[in-house]
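User: What would this chain look like folded?
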Amino acid sequence: MLMKRFTRTLWNNSLQIGKRYLASDPSKPLPDESERIDTAQELALDRDICLLVDEKDNFVGTATKRECHKVGPEGQVPLHRAFSVFFFNQRGDMLLQRRSSQKVTYPDYYTNACCSHPLYIDGKAEDIITAARRRMNHELGVPLDKMDPEMFTYLTRVHYHDPGDGVWGEHEIDHILFFQSDVKVKPNSDEISEYCFIPKNEFNAFIPTLEGPLTPWFNMIRRHRLKLWWDNLHRIKELAEPEKIQKFIQEK
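Assistant: Here's the prediction, encoded as structure tokens.
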């Protein structure tokens, strides 16, 4: 699908930041709530088998994507394994995307490049980087042969819980991956409605201009670790702590 693009002033003075890119026609009205989730998203809720884990990230069982994101009567959500990819071009600009309005969890929220789950496939748990390559290909259109596994840096893990809208939420041990390349992206409009690459020195001024909230996992990383990691892209592998599971205080 061809991408449509637009440029807009992002704050009240004359400063502008590059372009944002839309993955769908901006003139098309948003769907009614009853029509919001499309067929593919609905099918994935029961087709995709996620990995249940304990608080040390040990694999303890499986559950459907639906079961892993449905909020219980006391706000509980099953703890499962996830990953988040932070994607930078060679200049060091970071890709920020807006989740499609058709997403089941956190529709229309802004977040990092790719956020999803390793799955239980053919009787075994999928490797994190294999899952990340699969989803970056599906969501961002990055060819698999342009994503050598060695290009990913596995930084750390983050354990967080967020009840979302009270119907769909998250409770994950999130494996944080960094990926840097000038590979072109062709986002899937069923997954991503908008994206742009943001320079580091304009990021803090850019965030308040966004027309929706940040996902809870991205907001926690932004507050607690993103500056440190972004400042050290040139030596990012030296900062990797894959054996650690971080717990950050979440602020609404």
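Confidence is low (pLDDT under 50) at residues 1-18, 24-34. If you want, I can go into more detail on any region.
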